[in-house]
Design brief:
about 450 residues; alpha/beta; 4-stranded parallel sheet; 3-stranded antiparallel sheet; about 10% strand
Length: about 450
Amino acid sequence: MNSSRQQNDIPIYRKKKNLVILLVLATVTVLVLHEYYPFDLYSILDNPHLNLINFDGVKIPNPSNNDQRGNESRHHDLTAIKKRNIMFTKTGKTGGSTIGSILYLYGFRNNLNFLLYPYVNHMRRPELKDIKSLLPPRPGQEYNIQTQHSFFNPDFEHKVFPKDRSLYMTVVRSPVGRFRSHLVYTGSDKKERSKHEDGDKLSFEEVSNLYLDQFVPTCNFSALSVEPLHKSCIKLNLLLEYLSWSHFTDSLGNHATLQERVDLFIQMLDKEYDLVMITDRMDESLVVLKEIMGWEMRDILYLRKKSSPENPRYSAATEERIIDLLNIEHQIFNYFNAKLDSHIDHLGYDRIRKAVSEFKVMREGFENKCFNKEAGKTPSCKKYTDSPWGCNIVDWELSEYGKTGDLSCAFLYTRFNNYSEVVSDLQLSHDYTVRDFKYRTEGLKLKDVVERLRNETKLL
């Protein structure tokens, strides 16, 4: 009887033993794969055919009380974030390249992984279905920083940069300043002059108003009440494209007024972004970023590569016209400009004011050491002849200190678009080496600048 029971127990024992062996083998396999294979991002995507943006469950606020927007918004406890990863939506003509250069330098110093398509400077609107086309991070690691131009896509961003360990940030600018900069950058002012006889004699403000004329029928906010906005209006309100206005409002159907859509859009942005920086208050924004991330002052240093007069002011009538045609941008700017004040108060007004003053002195000293400002030149004079600044822009040259004493000078002096090639080589090589680039900064190879930067222990 006992012998029979023992014989029946043997298979059960063997099954348990085999199960233990299988579990051990499975654990070892997972560990080996994690160690030797790149971060398999697309394996975590539950549904590769998800919609671009999922805004389900959005509620329409009471249109009679727009002030509810601020009261209902999420208050970000910035002092508790201290996150390693950064998802930065780089918007157009807002100083995004300055912020992006800072993030690139920080990433190079700390061997972090960047999210981008290989050797491409604009991510457009990244989609989940294209995830395999991304530049992979180094084996066993995750993406740490996104800093290329891109159009915000929550479905995509949330998968790549989990909210619990990533800081979501972007930057906005006063509509008048962004419009002026965009007009010159795209050459639209010169194109407008070419349409008119004696166009060369027109003032920059006259040219600006002629350019705005084409948008009056579609973008006059005070006369609009229905959606969707005309594509030309979104082209003028460039910020809306970067922040995915169309994809968000499409999810609302046809039962909301334009102002209700604006209120909901700002609510969504406030929920998604931990920090919205303000171009017009760059130093304050950077100091707040430093406090959030637990960085040092040197981590937020940047360079002004040119000297130019203060931006010429438009007349009150022209500014009012710009604000009406870019009214949604204007509302976004006003909301997050006030939100920056709220962040500063939360972090400690006096402490932040003091830190900003110290940073301004430090940054100016850093810039004066990087550049030989006495030997400035004006190679871009012809380019800016028709701009509001005339030929008063001076391009500064790197000093000997900027070339050899502190390579962060040369790095920050490099054109932003060149960084993507360096990043691509770094992450694709896996051993973090860089090929010999054609790009040079005052005789310095960007390859050498990057590799020497990574070995520095003290920059200032």
